[in-house]
Amino acid sequence: MKQTHFKKKEKRPARMGNPVIDAVAAGLFRFTSLHQVRARLTQIREEFLISKDQDLKNPDTIKLWIRDYALTPEEISGGYLGNYALIRPKNDGKHISLIAEKLNVDLKSHPRKQRPKMRHPDWGHPILRAVLKKKLYLAVEEVHAEFMRLHEEFPEVSIPGPDRLHIIVYQGGKEQKVGSPVQKITLRIRTHDDGQYYMTYSINSKKRPSDVRAKPETPKVSRGYFTSMVSLKKKKKPTAKPAASGTSSNSTH
Question: Which of 49, 76, 109 is the last residue of a domain?
């Protein structure tokens, strides 16, 4: 019997709306031992992307970036999509909880930030990068959500379908080939051998038939007898008659 080998679950960015992250942000976890706390911290490290800049002296803390976490109106208008947080245990004497503390980190050090508003997405867009990497999704609904996110972000250049998305992407810069800087593609959902889902794309290279119209012919003007004779005389060149032998124009009788 053929064995199915499941690919190791890929880590994902933390974001508000995830039950674990919501519980940490609200300080809802309650533990009776430090062993339980560390087990939950290990689960967070294995499931989410964490910062490379960790406090090695305190292994019971985690620094990570959380999408939509503790955003102020000023941060939103400034391009922030989330904030860094330090997750650490807090002992109140009866229970140990996990809490999140907001860290003020400059926007340039954030893994994600608002992209400048563009008419077309380019291949640097997170979803299109996921297409190129053939990122795996556990549920087909997750792929549909990615399609709709792209459509809502670029409604003027995209057309959603039941299992696909038609969209025009910008391929300027080094990726641009000869021709137009934009390209029409279709994103589709595919099923992996292990039952997960991923996205593929194809280029829409079909061209409309060119509207070649025959040039109008110059109408021919019918010529009468007189017109033909005039044209014929213009074409003929007068030829000199040969002089008669034995005669001279200066001879006298």
Answer: 109
